[in-house]
Amino acid sequence: MAKRHSNHGGNLESMFLRLEELVLANSGEDEFEEVFKLLVAKLYAQLTGQAERFTAKGTQRETARQIHALLRDALEKWPGILEEDARFRLVDEHLHVCVEALAMHDVSRDGLDVLDSFFEFMVSRTAKGNKGQYFTPRYVVDFCVRMLKPRSDETVLDPACGSGGFLFHALAYVRQAERLDEAAAARYCSASLWGFDIDPRAIRVAKALMVLAGDGRSQLFRLNSLLRPDMAFLSGQSTSGDFADLTVEHVVAERRPSHEGFDVILTNPPFAGEVMERHILDGYHASRGKQRVERDVLFIERCVDLLRPGGRLAMVLPHNKFASSEFANDRARLLNTCKVLGVVALPRNTFLPHTHQKASILFLQKRASGGDMQPDEDIFLAVSEREGKNTKGKLRRRPGAASNGPQWTWVDHDLEDIERAFSACRAGETISFGAGSAGITAKRISELGPALVLAPERYDMRRSALHRAGDESQHVVLGDIVDIVTRTVSPASKAASERTFIVLDTSDVREGFIVGRKVRVAGTSIGSTKKTFAKGDVLVSRLRPYLRQVGIADHGFVLNANGAELACSTEFFVLRSKSGMDIGFLVPYLLSAPVQEVLAAAQEGGHHPRFDESVLLSLPLPSSLLENQAGCSHAIAIAANRYREAESLVQEAVRKADAIIKPE
User: Fold this and answer.
1) Closest CA to 81 of 190, 185, 163
2) Which residues, 6+ apart, have CB-to-CB distance to 85 below 8 Å?
3) Which residues pair with 395 in a beta bridge?
4) Counts of helices then strands in the chain (DSSP H, E)
5) 655: left (phi over 0), alpha (psi -120 to 50) or beta
6) Is 35 exposed, middle or buried (0-12, 13-18, 19+ CB in 10 A)?
7) Predicted confidence band at 118 (pLDDT cuts at 50, 70, 90)?
8) Which of 140, 330, 347, 444 lies deepest, with the highest CB count within 10 Å?
9) Cβ within 8 Å of residue 501, ≥6 positions away
10) How many other CB atoms sit within 10 Å of the CB of residue 496?
11) Taking the complete model, does pTM exceed 0.90, yes or no?
């Protein structure tokens, strides 16, 4: 039996879950549309001092009549939030039940920040995740706004505005920083805040959010922001504010004829999806001559195009745009047109529960016409280390923080520290990179290398922590005593068809040992290309180093293979001694906390973080470890033998259990 969700007054998430449940269970109507209409009616009743109209009446028919009237009044006051002919599709009985569930909540009392988070929750469950679009956590939005510090005399744009979070928080920031009264805030909102999105539902939610902020006339429109003026055909505006084939420039020029570019852009464009339309691809430097290109690559170029010279940008992007050699030309073009002010790497849990995608925030300023990149320009780089969310995507509360208010004040993050360091860097102050700030540094463009890597993780000082902490007179690194074996075997090769193999996946190696006995398979059945290894080799998984998948191919394991050849996933680095000496002593070294910290700091990538072999081979080996390598390797060999003995005892016990339990 499905669990019924509790509905607690003051808990907006429980309210939505209960309403969603009631709509789905009782009517089969679109839960987003029906719950959103209920919220609009509820908000109208409370914000106009008519809260008593949104209550369950004596009969279901009377309740329905009252709520239908409220919705009509709301549509008249706030055009564009819903379709002009919007009406409830719930029958009187179901509408009465939903009103009863919603009536106990005072949505205006809960505050704009809580409702902002609620709208994020509502839309992300129904509309966004399957498009690669993930709403930015509101404490991250606040961070972007605080880093760029917009002013009331500046225009702000989000070309992929979703539910309007960046615009709402920009308004809140300016309102507080400049102490704007309601009239001044309304003027700023209607004249200076611009949002565009291709998703009609998101635009309606964004309009509702700005209504809550005290203004119903915000410049929010549905269109494809990637269209440029020379691509599109002019068309009329629909009554819903939908500009099917118009561009951002067309819409803004009609309302601000003197517009010459936006002062501030804050955005998180879709992470996933490729653009394949020829008329769009031919309009961008990044995609000319290509058959397809990732959508966010075009958004980078488009946002720079929409900025005025001197304008500022904060954009959330996947890790590969900052680190992958595939996008080196795009980074070069960006650095030629813009001064990159900083890049801040976000923790991997930031966009959970929707995705593990690793992302960073790009901060830049568009160069004046004719301005050139200078090799000595400093770029602020930081790695955010305090996860604001747990592994299930739930927000972590800062110890001792109040139970309400903006996420920025109570979520357990370190973005405030990074903001202060960035401000100090911009002011020309010397930043201390001592204890507690290992993930913060600054690099000149000339130090970025030929690929112009902008990923902060690449310059994290913890990567070289062992070099700094070790004996300066000791220059032996891992690459001096081992080679990385690269020999592979393919199931399609003739050689493989004549042999049998024991094949290891990354989960088969952990905490120093190869675990479990593996079944021999024919070479044609090994699946994909594998690396080969031999007795005495040390296997280190480059994938997700925090899983501690390090182990040695010990004598007992090789003996149990009974003549089969040994192969493993290509995710392993196979370390082999250059001199033939026993390298078992490397197992505890690679599992030690200092080395694990280096490997964790070195991991890069989107969904599947890895570290590069250069990081591994450059690890310094302490002289004390090298002096005791024989004794340490002998201890590992004894431990491996005992592990195999214990493994054999367990397997013998299992065989006996099988014999007892197996029916005659």
Assistant:
1) 163
2) none
3) 389
4) 25, 22
5) alpha
6) buried
7) low
8) 140
9) 489, 520, 521, 522, 523, 526, 530, 564, 565, 566, 567
10) 21
11) no
Rounded Cα gap, residues 41 and 67, in angstroms: 7
In angstroms, the CA 538 to CA 217 distance is 65
Superfamily of 113-459 according to CATH: Vaccinia Virus protein VP39 (3.40.50.150)
Give yes or no for a cis peptide into 353 (omega within 30° of 0): yes
Same fold, 113-459 and 478-648: no
For 34-45, what is the mean pLDDT? Answer: 86
Distance CA 297, CA 395 (A): 30
CATH class of 478-648: alpha beta
pLDDT number for residue 111: 46
Alpha helices in 400-534 (DSSP H): 407-410, 415-426, 465-469, 478-481, 494-497
* Distance, CA of 229 to chain centre: 31
Nearest to 410 by CA among 393, 395, 392: 395
Alpha carbon separation from 266 to 158, 184, 269, 304, 595 (Å, rounded): 5, 22, 10, 12, 38
How many Å apart are CA 603 and CA 543, to the nearest integer? 8
Q: Which amino acid is at 266?
A: L
- Helix ranges, 275-327 (H): 278-281, 295-306, 320-323
DSSP 326: G
Closest by CA to 388, choosing from 351, 358, 439, is 351
Structure tokens at 403: 């139970």
**Which two structure tokens, joined as six digits, stand for 103?**
């009536």
Give the relative orientation of helices 60-77 and 92-103 as an angle to the nearest 10 degrees.
70
Name residue, tokens 């450059």. 618
- Listed by start position, the domains of the chain span 12-108, 113-459, 478-648
Sequence-distant (6+) residues with CB within 8 A of 110 are 10, 12
349: DSSP letter? T
In the block, tokens 């599109």 appear at 232
Neighbour tally for 267: CB within 10 Å:
24
